């Protein structure tokens, strides 16, 4: 219950032990821990706080406010500035990152080791011991913050690949808590995971949770198999015995706030903006759309190559067809991302050089983030949405597009390697490595009969409207409630303090 006083014993990041007594109002029965807070500072000079676009924040806002929860995370800014104590009714607790943490924990281990490794190693992962040590230290700080704000016996939900060691560290600090972990990105097959020099530490970290959730069943079974092979755990894919506890494992495919997308897609000003966008594009017969973070896992280059070949073979013609590619800037200080951007911009300019007419590019390329209403207007303006990642945990853009197609028009071309492919059976499924296959899928999507197109969209919309983000959160939290069999812990003697460095691997 919020306000219940709790004793949280924590060890500080520099290895010196400290005990903090946290007063009631700062604690909560429900704590979300994610690398990013749901707010971030605007660009200088304003630096005012603004809601973070996309991702987890809109997904979890409702759950956190309903439970008067606390969100523990990083502001996205380097240095000691705290986010406000609350924002849009969500209580916030900041974890600070130094320049070094940013380089070694965020850009390094999270995004240059784990991110490529977990995405089929589409770029070679880099392994550095110093990066791992930074990851472990920053994970400990997140665990300590969560330990400080969680009420006795409360629930803590830890998110994503940046924080895989938090569950175990948190359990050592606060054995009274129910701890859930959800991985938003893929969990790799054994052959790839085994490369990781710190594989035991990562698995043990995750096994600290009562419930470990993944986007798809394949990821859950990859994890359970590895836990049995490397950590000596016993059991099945869905239930593991480890360290005298039961860890439940399962697939909980994430979704979107579908009703909110439907509402925005029905707003007269958004519909008018979509019409204006089509007019600005020259009122073409067909608008193809791609919307992605600019990331080498998204397969944007192959998609543009496929479209270019369709312009070359005459299937597409600039007088009738146009593509819009939105590439949202991301992780720009990483060399792989910087070179991916240069690569894409070169391809786009080649295609336009070959196929544009004066005032009519073949591909409109926007390297910018977009307010929600503008994005929804783009979805409404697009006849064919092309989502072709080489590997993707889920891909919410695909679900957003489907939710916005209230009149059942539109078609979705979707990579079979996105988690969303398991649910969106009305899509044209493609192997993003297969250019001919992608071209054929785009051809079919463009020329589908209205009747078949509507049937496909209806099928997908049923899934997305029924299984929305609220259903996702309650199914995860319901499973966590059922799975957490907690030891009898009292407020008497404090939990043992872990000594500095014990959670390493
Ligand atoms: C993916 C990850 C999230 C991450 C987001 C944006 O969706 O699963 O955890 O927050 O990308 O990446 P960034 O590095 O900017 O946080």
Question: In summary, what is this structure?
Answer:
With 505 residues, the protein is α/β, with parallel strands linked by helices.
Search tags:
505 residues; alpha/beta; Rossmann fold; 2 domains; 10-stranded mixed β-sheet; 6-stranded parallel β-sheet; 20 strands; 41% helix; globular; disordered C terminus; binds 6-O-phosphono-alpha-D-glucopyranose
CATH topology of the largest domain: Rossmann fold
Radius of gyration: 23 Å
Number of domains: 2
Task: Kindly estimate the percentage of residues that lie in beta strands according to DSSP.
Answer: 15-25%
Instruction: State the shape.
Output: globular
**Share of helix among residues?**
40-55%
The total beta strand count reads 20
Give a verbal description of the structure.
Helix 6 packs across helix 7, helix 9 (268-280) crosses helix 12 (372-381) and helix 10 (300-312) packs across helix 14 (435-447). This protein has a ten-stranded mixed β-sheet, sandwiched between helices. Helices cover 41% and strands 20% of the residues. By secondary structure, the protein is α/β, with parallel strands linked by helices. Residues 1-25 and 488-505 have low confidence and may be disordered. Helix 10 links the parallel strand 15 and strand 16 (321-328). It folds into two domains: 6-254 and 469-483, Rossmann fold, CATH 3.40.50.2000; 258-466, Glycogen Phosphorylase B (Rossmann fold). The protein is built from 16 helices and 20 strands. The protein is globular. 6-O-phosphono-alpha-D-glucopyranose (G6P) is lined by residues 35-36, 55, 160, 184-185, 330-331.
């Amino acid at each position: 219950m919020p306000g219940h006083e709790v004793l949280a014993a924590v060890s500080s990041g520099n290895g010196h032990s400290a005990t903090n007594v946290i007063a009631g109002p700062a604690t909560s029965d429900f704590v979300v821990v994610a690398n990013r807070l749901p707010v971030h500072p605007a660009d200088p000079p304003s630096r005012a706080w603004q809601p973070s676009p996309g991702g987890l924040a809109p997904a979890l806002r409702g759950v956190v406010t309903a439970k008067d929860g606390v969100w523990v995370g990083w502001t996205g800014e380097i240095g000691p500035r705290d986010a406000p104590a609350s924002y849009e009714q969500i209580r916030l607790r900041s974890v600070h990152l130094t320049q070094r943490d940013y380089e070694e924990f965020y850009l390094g281990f999270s995004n240059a080791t784990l991110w490529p490794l977990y995405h089929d190693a589409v770029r070679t992962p880099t392994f550095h011991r110093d990066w791992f040590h930074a990851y472990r230290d920053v994970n400990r700080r997140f665990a300590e913050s969560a330990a400080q704000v969680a009420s006795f016996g409360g629930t803590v939900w830890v998110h994503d690949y940046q924080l895989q060691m938090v569950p175990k560290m948190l359990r050592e600090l606060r054995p009274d808590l129910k701890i859930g972990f959800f991985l938003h990105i893929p969990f790799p097959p054994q052959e790839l995971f085994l490369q990781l020099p710190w594989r035991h530490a990562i698995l043990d970290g995750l096994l600290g949770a009562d419930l470990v959730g993944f986007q798809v069943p394949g990821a859950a079974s990859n994890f359970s198999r590895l836990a049995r092979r490397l950590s000596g755990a016993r059991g099945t894919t869905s239930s593991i015995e480890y360290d005298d506890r039961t860890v439940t494992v399962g697939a909980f495919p994430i979704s979107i706030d579908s009703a909110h997308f439907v509402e925005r897609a029905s707003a007269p000003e958004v519909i008018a903006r979509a019409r204006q966008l089509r007019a600005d594009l020259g009122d073409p017969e067909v608008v193809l759309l791609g919307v992605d973070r600019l990331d080498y896992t998204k397969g944007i280059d192959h998609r543009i190559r496929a479209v270019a070949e369709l312009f070359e073979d005459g299937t597409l013609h600039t007088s009738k067809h146009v593509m819009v590619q939105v590439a949202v800037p991301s992780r720009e200080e990483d060399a792989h991302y910087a070179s991916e951007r240069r690569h894409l911009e070169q391809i786009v300019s080649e295609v336009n050089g070959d196929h544009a007419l004066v005032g009519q590019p073949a591909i409109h390329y926007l390297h910018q983030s977009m307010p929600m209403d503008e994005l929804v207007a783009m979805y409404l303006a697009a006849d064919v949405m092309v989502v072709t990642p080489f590997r993707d945990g889920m891909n919410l853009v695909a679900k957003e597009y489907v939710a916005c197609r209230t009149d059942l028009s539109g078609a979705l071309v979707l990579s079979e390697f996105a988690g969303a492919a398991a649910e969106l059976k009305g899509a044209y499924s493609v192997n993003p490595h297969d250019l001919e296959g992608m071209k054929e899928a785009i051809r079919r999507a463009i020329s589908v009969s209205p009747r078949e197109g509507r049937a496909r969209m209806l099928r997908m919309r049923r899934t997305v409207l029924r299984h929305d983000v609220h259903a996702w959160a309650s199914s995860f939290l319901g499973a966590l409630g059922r799975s957490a069999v907690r030891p009898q812990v009292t407020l008497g003697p404090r939990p043992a303090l872990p000594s500095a460095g014990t959670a390493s691997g």
